[in-house]
What does this fold into?
Amino acid sequence: MWCGAGPLAVVAAVFWTQCVLLDGVDAKKERKRPKEVTPQYTETYNATLSNSEEVAGSIKISDHQRVDPLGSWMDFVKRPVGNFPGKCRKRKRPLPGPPGPPGPPGPQGPPGSPGAEVTQEVLLQEFKDMIKEATERRAEALDRQTSPSQLPIALLTLEGMTSYRRIEEAFHCKLKGPVVVDKKTLVELQNFQTPPAKGAFLRGSGMDQTTGRFTAPITGIYQFSANVHIDHNEVKKSKSQLKARDNVRVLICIESLCHRYTSLEMIVGLESNSKIFTVSVQGLLELQAGQYTSIFVDNAAGASITIQNGSDFMGMLLGV
It folds into this structure.
């Protein structure tokens, strides 16, 4: 029996001896190997984790999710510039360019309906209505301002404001030839004519150019004027000295009665150094129907004078 157990015991002893030797060699190698510094890792959490990685409110981090600090820094340094978000870069807005040319004109619209025919009479009537309404409003405003004791202001007639009255009686004529007036003489000027030049006129039948008299066709207020050109060369040639009473009067008289009726008169002396001087007279006279007026020259000097041709006589009917 011991003979069969002997070989097994030998094998077991050899095996045990080999194991002991191997453990000793490993222990010596461990003692000779330098200690390695365990690198420090920073653990980062994945923002998106599955439900299996969350247990009881805590997050399990696997070894594959650890980040190398040096590698992370190098990745950050080598990042492309274009990966920055849009908020970090100021976008340059393009400047507006010059305006373009105007577009083509649009198509012509359809023609409108024909308007109402407006004549001159319609426009004149509308204008008269507007003037009348404005005049009435103005009169009402003035009536409210005045006291009750004052009379209301008379309204202007519309016809007088919107139309012009034709002058029926008017004339402008000139003396045909010279007229000599002796000393101490009163002479009525006659023989007139209407000048051929434009601007002169003869309206109505009141003026008789041959006699130089204008007869009033109706009773009314008339305006007359005269420009008498006088040549007093004879007075200057005379050896007698001029006196204070040496003068010339020009009158426009009614019915040739210069002292009975009101007349238009101008008196001038003869001290003028020029050969010819002009005497002008003008004014208003009231004539009854059938009465006439004419020009008189009264020479009070001691020598004769000459009335030059071209002297004017004018008149017109102002109103009744």
